[in-house]
Amino acid sequence: MKVHELHSWPTSPEEAEAIQYRLRPLLILDAPGPSTPRTVAGLNVSYAPTSVAAAAVVLDTKTLEIIDKSVKIGTPTFPYIPSLFAFRELPTLLEGTTTIGRVLRTQNNVKPVFVSVGHRTNLDTACRNVLDLAPEYRLPETTRRADRLSRDALAG
C-alpha cells in the first residue's frame, strides 16, 4: 500500500486538530461507492496499558471467507484523545499492512493495470517487469498475447 504523505505527523493534539480541520473538505461522503465489491476490509486497534495491537482482515464478500489478515503489535506514539484516534492508531495499522499489489499505469492516458507479487518475485520487480513488457500497449505483451490466443481459440 502506497501512503501519500499529506502532512507531517503531528506532535501535539493542537497540530492534529489543525490537520483534521484542513483535511475535512477533502472528504467525499455522498458518493455511492462500489455497489458490489468483491472484497472488503475491516480494521481494528485494541489497547493494553503500554501497547496496541492493530489488525486488518480482508473478506470475500460472497463467502465471507478470510482472504488475508495481518496483525501488528506496537507502542502508541500519540496520546489517547477520543476525537483524534487516527493519530494514535494509524501508525501501527500501517506498519502491519502487507502490500501484495499495486495499481500501475503502463502508458499515458490509459486505465491502469493491477500488478501483484508472485512466486520468487517481489512487487517492485513485478512492476518493473510489467513496464518492460508494455512498451506500446496498456497490457504487458505476455498478457496481451495470451488474451489474443485464448480469444482466437474460442472463435474457432
TrEMBL record:
Top-rank taxon, per record: Bacteria
Alphabetical UniProt keywords: Cytoplasm, Endonuclease, Hydrolase, Nuclease
Subcellular location per the Swiss-Prot or TrEMBL entry: Cytoplasm
Pfam families for the chain: Endonuclease_5
Principal location listed in the UniProt entry: cytoplasm
Protein's name according to its UniProt entry: Endonuclease V
Organism the protein comes from: Actinomadura meridiana
Source taxonomy: Bacteria, Bacillati, Actinomycetota, Actinomycetes, Streptosporangiales
